[in-house]
Amino acid sequence: MLEIPVIDLSSFTTGKATARQTVVQQIYQACHEIGFMYLKNTNISHNLINQVLKQSKDFFDLPLAEKQQLAWTNEFSNQGYVGFERERLNPNNPGDLKEAFNIGKQKAIDIDVTDRLSPVFTASSSPAKNPHILNFYQACTELANKVLQAIALALELPQDFFTTNHNQQNHTLRLLHYPSLSQPPKLRQVRAGEHSDYGSITLLFQDEVGGLEVRTASGKWIAAAPIPDTIVVNTGDLMERWTNHVFCSTKHRVMIPNDHTLNQSRYSVAFFCHPNDNTEIVCLESCQRDKSPIYPPILAGEYLLSRLQATY
Q1: Helix orientation angle between 131-154 and 17-33, rounded to the nearest 10 degrees
Q2: CA 143, 53, 224: angle at the middle one, nearest 5?
Q3: Which of 123, 146, 178, 195 lies at a C-alpha separation of 20 to 30 Å from 24?
């Protein structure tokens, strides 16, 4: 597969059995062959997406000192502001030319401590307090569950297999800003270095600027250009481990443009879908028919921490 397919999700949600099965097969093929797809008719409104992109821009327009008051502090919480060049997704390259803000679900058991210690949840300027963004987090959770249901059926599992293993909502919503460039980048520096995502699936909402590239199985880089009225979805490392490489966790990157968009900021929002921390990621039986398990079992939470520690 040399092109990223566009899949209409509405048939899975409201269609008859044959139409649902067609969507399941399309998702299986996309996850197996390239690890990326565009979904249309997802029921997340344009208005809500635009509101989130606006709130993201408003936050990143704040003075750096104000944003740093909400700084990301450690991989255990994985929340807050991440400054320019702080993250290095490709360890062989200089720091990425982007800034970000991570938002996770606030666990009820931590509310009292968090309110005392973390301005990420309490500062008026924090996106974590914005109602549009909180509504968006919930809408992304619901969409991710639909995709996970389709993936479960594609792998001959009970429909609720993955949603049950994601019911603690350990997901991360990430606002991203790639600034316009007023000076040349460092050697090999890009907006987001070559990497794979850490969790099960990712939902990506991008503006019209573009720059995302995906590496095919043959090693060719292809553009994942913005397509109106669609959402990019890709499978991550834990889904690859779960499925014994039946589904792939594809490398991707965000490059610096070589046209007029060099002088434009790029904004995107990624929703990283993670299993419950105590979920054991062990090779699925339906994925062992042709080869033995590639990976030993690992807890989802342990894997995420190891990847975050390596990234920061």
Answers
A1: 90
A2: 65
A3: 195
Pick from 99, 199, 79: which is nearest to 144 by CA? 199
Cβ(196)–Cβ(249) below 8 Å: yes
Q: Which residue has the tokens 């990157």?
A: 253
Is residue 50 included in any domain, yes or no? yes
Rg from Cα positions in the chain: 19
Residue 35 lies in a domain: no
Q: At which residue do the structure tokens 């008026």 appear? A: 124
| Residue with the two structure tokens 């909180």 | 134
Q: Is residue 283 part of a domain?
A: yes
pLDDT (tens digit, 0 to 9) for every residue of the chain, 312 residues total? 568 999 999 999 887 899 999 999 999 999 999 999 999 999 899 999 999 999 999 999 999 999 999 999 888 888 999 999 898 888 888 999 999 999 997 643 344 444 445 778 778 889 988 999 999 999 999 999 999 999 999 999 999 999 999 999 999 999 999 999 877 888 888 899 999 999 999 999 999 988 999 999 899 999 999 999 999 999 999 999 999 999 999 999 999 887 777 778 999 999 999 999 999 999 999 898 778 899 999 999 999 999 988 877
Report the predicted TM-score, pTM, of the whole model to 2 decimal places: 0.93
Amino acid letter for position 38? Y
The CATH number of the domain holding residue 270 is 2.60.120.330
Print the domain residue range for 112: 46-311
| Backbone dihedral region for residue 85 (phi beyond 0: left; psi -120 to 50: alpha; all else: beta) | left
- The count of domains in the chain is 1
The tokens describing 216, both together, are 């095919």
Residues 6+ apart with CB under 8 A from 266: 177, 178, 191, 206, 207, 209, 210, 211, 254
In a domain, residue 164? The reply is yes
